[in-house]
Design goal:
Elements: H1 3-26, H2 29-44, H3 54-75, H4 98-105, H5 109-116, H6 121-132, H7 137-144, H8 148-163, H9 167-188, H10 192-198, E1 199-207, H11 209-213, E2 219-221, H12 223-230, E3 238-242, E4 245-250, E5 258-265, E6 268-275, H13 278-281, E7 286-288
Parallel strand pairs: 1-6
Antiparallel strand pairs: 1-2, 3-4, 3-7, 4-5, 5-6
Length: about 290
């Protein structure tokens, strides 16, 4: 095996870990994949024969790439990515990549990402690498160009902000999952009264163009009409986490075909979106939950 093949094999072994780091840093799967690809390019151009810990070396590279991307984003004064309207995630957790599955299944994943978007780039890197991935402060300091003490202080500051902000979103997620867990059997069993119990009186059902072509109504308004539409339906839909939010998915053969995206207010569903556009679904990642 030549050096290039050896590098490629080692890189694939660490891809799941690197993607998890980059996703926590950037809050975007597409940007995370870009960062991981950049790490591969740098690896392929580097002489790593003297590197004793390639996983650590790659994590450092991904950290630097992500830090540059965060700083660039901040300098362009972009709005925090996905903080207000998260893009649903679809990619089935099938056990083939435990680190990736754990990342997607994290019940506070989306709540944490929203909080991380409020941190300065240096704080975010220090917190993600140290608190989430047990990175040493000496290495974090080298990435930041700061002292280990300064890196420790950045992580501590970020930790206080995260701990003070994630409790309520986590509770919200548990409530949302409870609502979805009530909605799906009510739909399957044709329980009109139970459906009305979880739908806001002014609930709106919308479907994208692909779902409409498959027979879904483009738009329905009002709890009575939406409940009637779902009565006896959704028999093969399964509860899921979509970008960390409670949702449902129809995934025959393990491939997502339709995502049911919910918007909640309190204990009620106020909007349901049916997403079936393959191009959209290919950009998503879903964790299917046990019924």
């Amino acid at each position: 095996m030549d050096e290039h093949d050896w590098q490629a094999e080692r890189f694939e072994e660490n891809r799941g870990h690197l993607r998890a780091v980059a996703y926590r840093m950037l809050g975007s799967l597409s940007e995370a994949d870009d960062a991981v690809q950049e790490a591969w390019l740098r690896l392929s151009r580097s002489d790593t024969s003297a590197v004793e810990n390639l996983r650590g070396w790659l994590t450092t590279v991904v950290g630097r790439v992500c830090l540059d991307m965060l700083r660039s984003r901040k300098s362009r004064r972009e709005e925090p990515l996905e903080a207000d309207a998260p893009e649903p995630i679809v990619g089935i957790a099938d056990g083939s990549d435990p680190e990736h599955d754990a990342l997607l299944a994290d019940s506070v994943g989306q709540a944490l990402l929203v909080v991380l978007e409020t941190l300065a780039p240096g704080e975010r890197l220090a917190f993600v690498l140290h608190d989430l991935f047990a990175g040493p402060f000496d290495e974090i300091a080298r990435i930041l160009g700061r002292s280990p003490t300064a890196a420790r202080q950045l992580a501590s500051r970020a930790r206080r902000r995260v701990q003070g902000a994630t409790a309520v979103p986590d509770a919200d997620l548990r409530r949302q999952r409870h609502i979805v867990d009530a909605f799906l059997p009510a739909s399957r069993n044709g329980d009109f009264v139970a459906l009305l119990a979880v739908l806001d009186p002014d609930v709106v059902l919308r479907a994208d163009s692909a779902a409409v072509l498959a027979g879904a109504p483009k738009e329905i308004r009002g709890a009575q009409a939406v409940a009637e539409s779902f009565k006896g339906r959704a028999r093969v839909a399964q509860p899921a986490l979509v970008n960390g939010a409670a949702a449902a998915v129809w995934a025959p053969g393990g491939r997502p075909r339709v995502v049911f995206s919910f918007t909640f207010t309190g204990a009620k569903i106020v909007e349901i979106e049916l997403l079936a556009d393959p191009a959209h679904l290919d950009r998503l990642t879903v964790v299917v939950l046990n019924n």
